[in-house]
Design goal:
The structure is a homodimer. By secondary structure, chain A is mainly alpha-helical. The first copy, chain A, folds into two domains: 13-79, Winged helix-like DNA-binding domain superfamily/Winged helix DNA-binding domain (Arc Repressor Mutant, subunit A, Orthogonal Bundle); 88-121, no CATH class. Chain A is 52% helix and 7% strand. Chain A binds chain B through residues 19, 22-23, 25-27, 65, 80, 82-86, 90-91, 93-106, 108, 111-112, 114-116, 118-120, and chain B through 19, 22-23, 25-27, 65, 80, 82-86, 90-91, 93-106, 108, 111-112, 114-116, 118-120. The structure holds a DNA duplex.
DNA sequence: TTCTCTGTATTATAAAGTATAATACAGAAC
DNA sequence: GTTCTGTATTATACTTTATAATACAGAGAA
């Protein structure tokens, strides 16, 4: 698992970890059921506290992206519910990104192409 | 200016204000050169502290979205630089939204249609 | 058994970010 | 002068974030 953390970012570390894993699952870099690093292992590797990784894993578990087992550790949820509705929060985040890129001069077609590429990105 | 603040959100108030204005400019709700509410006025209206609004305006000014004048107050920058490159940060935010919606079961075509609608949204 | 690994929980602490409050100043408009 | 503007300063309180040091229960391996 590639995990790039930006300690000077305004995004909290635990959220960066959470985001990396979500993106990894969506891109196929992490496959359904795949074993994730242990909390302690990832904390060591990333140079952060165990509880910071734990916070990320707890959030991912609560969101249904991963499952945890005291025996085997954490795994990507082998059966993520792809029938759940996206929230208004996602739409608002999307609106914001589109607004910012629009004001950077990105045209609709350029933007859609960027999205197409990201959508099709495989590991 | 419509301004909906969610005080229970994990997004700071000053950032919500900043985001609302960015979206407003991009959608055309706020036009180039248009006068914005005064810091004190908006603070009163929104029920927040003056310095919170000031923080949002300072950020918007620094980002080039608005200009300020001690005489007239703050205005939408009449000449926003639409030739500036979008940052990697925007791409990462976009990747995250796409990932989350993908994992909610949204197909590529559905997603592109949502984007098209947002992109064309006028006030 | 004993040892080691897993996620989880607790408690304490430090540091940073956020928001409020009360003022004050400089510049321009009236 | 008075009033408005953005801006600046200082202090305070609260929340969030991250670390640290432990500890526990359950399961696997020696």
């Amino acid at each position: 698992m590639l995990l790039e953390l930006d300690f000077s970012s305004d995004t909290p570390i635990y959220m960066q970890i959470r985001n990396s894993i979500v993106v990894g699952i969506a891109s196929g870099e992490l496959s359904a059921g795949e074993k994730l690093p242990t909390i302690r292992g990832l904390a060591d590797e990333a140079g952060v506290n165990m509880m910071t990784v734990n916070k990320a894993y707890s959030l991912l578990k609560q969101e249904g992206y991963i499952v945890t087992d005291r025996r085997n550790g954490a795994c990507v949820n082998p059966d993520i519910n792809t029938a759940k509705a996206y929230g208004e929060e996602e739409i608002n985040k999307l609106k914001l990104v589109i607004s910012e890129m629009k004001l950077s001069g990105v045209t609709e077609e350029e933007f859609l192409n960027i999205c197409r590429n990201i959508f099709r990105e495989k590991e």
